Amino acid sequence: MAAHLGRRMRIYNAVASPRVLLAGVQAKTLKFNNEPVDITSDDDAGFRTILATPGLQSLDLSVSGICKDAVLLTKWATGNGILPLEIEDLETTELITADFFLQNLQLEAPTAQGVPFSAEFISSGTITYAP
Fold first, then answer.
1. Cα separation, 115 vs 83, whole angstroms
2. From the centroid of its chain, how far is CA 30?
3. Is residue 1 part of a domain?
4. 7-61 pLDDT, tens per residue?
């Protein structure tokens, strides 16, 4: 994702048709992961050698903001934590699509502005990136 204002990156609930913004999100963090495959052998003279292709690719997503609906709480309560999401940069039209598992959800004590929340998602299955 290109370096732009954070509010230009949007996270959509891809289950809904038409897709809708994941409600209340104010801050978001994407962590792209490539797990290395160590192929070191005696031929490498004691130096580690890593396979050029990652063994496991994953994407972690952290969001926080003010609750506007019960979508995330419902996902947690029903035990079905899989949520198809689309992450879009509105300026560059880059798009990431994947199924995400709701790993944890934290709700805080209500304030005058609403109920603050934070949630962490981990990708499940294929990740599609369209630059």
1. 21
2. 6
3. no
4. 678 898 888 788 888 888 999 999 999 999 999 999 999 999 999 999 999 999 9
